[in-house]
């Protein structure tokens, strides 16, 4: 109906099937067939074909305003659809993601028709932004083994450890030792129960002093503590490399950050996972299957 009305309006405005078809960017026989189909559907002639020009019949003049409204409405709908496709998906992401990785993810999304607007934030704020609908989707931390992406965690230090694995029990200080002991700093991204509590319990189990496992107010302050001492930062291998630190796995436990995408609309979350999964993995520091195979 819309295509037929578009042909009808175009021919009527130009008084010619040939010129009208050219304006509508369709072959002249196609324009003729569409108008004929519309006449059959409406039950009367729209054009008087007894002359060389395409002259409207009385019925055609009566139907032209309705056809124009239908064409205008269809064009408005197409415009709205294009605008909706280009409307950015405001996405809350970990503030540990680098600018370069987010830019690559944005470029990848544009190639696939997904325009992104990032809101970097720590875990509690990402959840709040999604709950209050300030973002359309959020990359949220979940319990280990439950997310779409898993990021290994270990300990990073300014000086390269001698061993390939760091055992937290080696940080224990003796009763007669006056020093406060080397600390393990937990950054805001890992200040979530399923990570923080396991590290605290491990410290208690191996005999660390309570102050030796500390939660930092910011990533910057945590890194500053590590750079100025023999302390460790709980981090991913990728993040440690970006910070110029030396990363080692933890000997006693295997820790991971788990991530998934959540959205107010479940289809939106699945769309982001499907189209941008590898790019998000790179931002988070999670393994990318294709790159691992390579």
From TrEMBL:
A GO MF term: DNA-binding transcription factor activity
Biological source species: Actinorugispora endophytica
Domain HTH lysR-type: 1-57
Domain of life where this protein originates: Bacteria
Protein name (Swiss-Prot/TrEMBL): Regulatory helix-turn-helix LysR family protein
The UniProt record lists the keyword DNA-binding: yes
Family: Belongs to the LysR transcriptional regulatory family.
InterPro entries in the cross-refs: LysR_HTH_N, WH-like_DNA-bd_sf, WH_DNA-bd_sf
Keywords on record: DNA-binding, Transcription, Transcription regulation
